[in-house]
Amino acid sequence: MINRNIQERVKKVAPFLSFDKDPYMVISKEGKLFWIQDAYTISSNYPYSTPIGGGYFNYIRNSVKVIIDAYNGTMDFYIVDQKDPLIMVYKNIFPQLFKNFDQMPEDLKEHIRYPKDLFQVQAELYSTYHMMDPDVFYNKEDYWETPNELYGEDEIEMEPYYIITKLPGHEKEEFILMTPFTPSMKSNMIAWLAAKNDQPEYGNLIVYKFPKEKLIYGPMQIEARIDQDSEISQQLTLWGQKGSTVIRGNLLVIPIEESILYVEPLYLRAEKGEIPELKRVIVSNGSDVMIGKDLGDAL
């Protein structure tokens, strides 16, 4: 079999589509493995629309879900957005390529999730267009930013992440994709945006704003509190002296009803080792910082 790489394979078949950078593997009820690849239709010619991606496009729709059999490489392109005019044109041109969403096996439908790349685009735009007052919007007085975090030894921009949690005012846990926001040039958290992944509310976006008079710690403020904790600092120094490399994992900001829990894993890679080992988990509620051998121990 040639073109074994998942993304290279789908691009060979449908070069007119754009593809999410994060395909993921799922398992069917029969125990077979499949890759799910999100695909987009994009355009740079949509009227009165803000360009993004360096002006590369100003229109994007997650119109297609591609299912790839991990064993034999068979690909099925399912149209999930019948209202997208671009994908309907492609369907008329290539009628044998595309299938309707209702033809997708039910057990694979259960694994559909909201795509990260599309969510990042929406979050970036919403950080500006949440401002409804014309004067505030024109002066960008309430512009939001995606916060940074410490990963390894570097400060990087946080990426959206998937979690299962119970949203404020909801009765049960849900599978969501979320990202926090901070005010421009500030470190405190001002809001967070979530995309629902469970049916029948798949794709619904919801934003939670914090009162401006209430201080909610942002990711970098929590990272600073972790650095200032004497117990954690002592442990990190001790590991470093033994020749091992300490790797700080992604900080997760997890909403739990009316509160926020911050969780950061710590990994240790031996001097001659390649695979990091989970060594500790750090948790914080904003005021206290605790460390444990695992999440339960830290809590």
What amount of the residues lies in strands? 25-35%
- When the domains are counted, the total is 3
DSSP, total strands: 18
Task: Describe the sheet with the most strands.
Answer: 6 strands, mixed
Cα-atom Rg, whole angstroms?
22 Å
* Unreliable residue runs: none
> Roughly how much helix do the residues carry, as a percent range?
10-25%
| Mass-distribution shape | globular
Mean pLDDT: 93
N-to-C series of helices and strands? HEEEEEHEHHHEEEEEEEHHEEEEEH
| End-to-end C-alpha gap | 49 Å
Q: Tally the helices: what do you get?
A: 8
Structural class: alpha+beta
Describe the model.
The protein contains eight helices and 18 strands. Helices cover 22% and strands 35% of the residues. The longest helix is centred in the middle third of the chain and has 14 residues. The protein is of the alpha+beta class and 299 residues long. The strands form four sheets. Strands 1, 2, 3, 4, 5 and 6 form a six-stranded mixed beta sheet that branches. It has three domains: 107 residues, no CATH class; 92 residues, no CATH class; 80 residues, no CATH class.
Show the helix and strand layout:
Layout: H1 6-13, E1 18-19, E2 24-27, E3 33-43, E4 59-69, E5 75-79, H2 85-93, E6 98-100, H3 106-109, H4 116-129, H5 134-139, E7 144-145, E8 148-151, E9 154-157, E10 161-165, E11 174-183, E12 191-196, E13 205-209, H6 219-228, H7 230-241, E14 245-248, E15 252-256, E16 259-269, E17 277-284, E18 289-292, H8 295-298
Parallel strand pairs: 5-6
Antiparallel strand pairs: 1-3, 2-3, 3-4, 4-5, 7-11, 8-9, 10-11, 11-12, 12-13, 14-16, 15-16, 16-17, 17-18
